Amino acid sequence: MSIIESKTGKVIVERVSESRIKEVDTKNVSFGKHFSDHIACIDYAEGAWHRPRIQPYGYIPTSPAISAIHYGQAIFEGMKAYRNKDGKVVLFRPLDNHKRLNISASRLCMPEIPQDLFMDMLVELMKIDNEWVLPGEQNSLYIRPVYFATDEFIGVRESLTYRLIILTCPVSIYYTDPIKVMVANNFVRAYQGGVGFAKVAGNYANSLLATREAKALGYTNVLWMDAETRKNIEESGTMNVFFVIDGKVVTPRLTGTILAGITRDSVITLLKDANIPVEERDISIDEIAQTYKDGKLQEVFGTGTAVGIAPIIAIGHEGKDMNLPPMDSWKIAPTLMKQLKDIRFGNIPDKFSWIYPVE
Q1: What is the pLDDT of residue 8?
Q2: What pLDDT is attached to residue 220?
Q3: Given 119, 135, 255, 258, which residue has the most CB atoms within 10 angstroms?
Q4: Cα 242–245–247 angle (5° rounding)?
Q5: What CA–CA distances, in Å, run from 262 to 130, 162, 174, 270, 280?
Q6: CA distance 42 to 8
Q7: Are 101 and 77 in contact (CB under 8 A)?
Q8: For the chain, first and last CA: distance in Å?
Q9: How far apart are CA 349 and CA 273, in angstroms?
Q10: What is the reported pTM?
């Protein structure tokens, strides 16, 4: 065990005796199944954050009475690290993920974590598990901060104690093939005044039954409608969603029921920079059906940290599929995929200051 001096203070470090990376087939990495050697942890109690530490990945004993299990005070984030063309490890927009983590925390009455403290822990973890960031433009290191209540108390109130853990896993492509989505008619993901805009664990539990039913019918995931009208499109599974209609790109506006995706924002920025028309507005499934009928629906794709940019080749609606044109005719989604990849791997200049180097 050792102690490192970070920018915000002392971090306790307990290293593994031998890395497990030799157990991983680095040429065939499954998403979310192999975890890196270490995790970063910090606890909150008595109004302050205590004991920042990096320790071996493994099971963590906890009480069956903790508030997170019973009352759902649990949030998380998703971000990635890459090994660029020069062999250096870089993070993609981590400060934006930290900001969104605190937005989610505030919605669930959880204390915010200071940016400097969060970034110190993240960077030290990246340095220690540097070799887990695999080379190759298909690979990345997925980073999962998870933050939950730890009070041993049976009673509905906000917890007084919390734990933040950062764990990582080497990953490759999330969806290896283009996907099909089905309009969710019997379920809704979020409603006004709820927690749809936050990265709350319960949002994902709420989506599981609809997703299972869609998969049973041959679809990859669902396309969520708004709770009030059941007509306006919101998200698609674990992704924000974009439509290319007659050369113009349209995505649902952020209404408080949609997650403000970091990749979503990156795509909008790239489109505006290229002078490609892009609109954030309400868009109904009826409008999409009509544009499809008129032959104007050219591309549909989802965006997210895990999936990157995922082409959607069919939308199931009212018992029929809207099949998109062949992907060799697509122009916008492939261009965006290449631009994001080139920025992350240092193939082109990062003029948006999205890349955070791990020194």
Answers
A1: 75
A2: 96
A3: 258
A4: 105
A5: 24, 25, 17, 12, 15
A6: 13
A7: yes
A8: 23
A9: 14
A10: 0.95
| Category of 285 on φ-ψ map: left (φ > 0), alpha (ψ -120 to 50) or beta | alpha
Q: How many residues make up the chain in this entry?
A: 359
What region, left, alpha or beta, does residue 210 occupy, with left being phi > 0 and alpha being psi -120 to 50 degrees?
alpha
Cα Rg, the chain, nearest whole Å: 21
**Per-residue confidence (pLDDT) for residue 83, from 0 to 100:** 97
Going by C-beta distance under 8 Å and a sequence separation of 6 or more, which residues neighbour residue 54?
11, 12, 13, 14, 38, 39, 40, 41, 121, 124, 125, 128
Mean pLDDT by 10 residues, the chain (359 residues): 77 93 85 93 96 95 95 97 97 98 98 97 96 94 98 95 98 90 95 96 95 96 96 94 97 97 98 98 98 98 95 97 97 97 97 96
Dist. CA 70–CA 110, nearest whole Å: 15
d(CA 335, CA 340): 9
Q: What are the backbone dihedrals phi and psi of residue 129, each rounded to the nearest 5 degrees, phi first?
A: -105, 35
Contacts of 317 (CB under 8 A, 6+ apart): 182, 183, 285, 289
Closest CA to 91 of 47, 50, 121: 121
Query: If DSSP states are collapsed to H, E and C, what string results for the chain?
Result: CEEEEECCEEEEECCCCCCCHHHCCCCCCCCCCCCCCEEEEEEEECCEEEEEEEEECCCCCCCCCEHHHHHCCEEECCEEEEECCCCCEEEECHHHHHHHHHHHHHHCCCCCCCHHHHHHHHHHHHHHCHHHCCCCCCCEEEEEEEEEECCECCCCCCCCCEEEEEEEEEECCCCCCCEEEEECCCCCCCCCCCCCCCCEHHHHHHHHHHHHHHHHCCCCEEEEECCCCCCEEEEECCEEEEEEECCEEEECCCCCCCCCCHHHHHHHHHHHHCCCCEEECCCEHHHHHHHHHCCCEEEEEEEECCCEEEEEEEEEECCEEEECCCHHHCCHHHHHHHHHHHHHCCCCCCCCCCEEECC
pLDDT at 173: 85
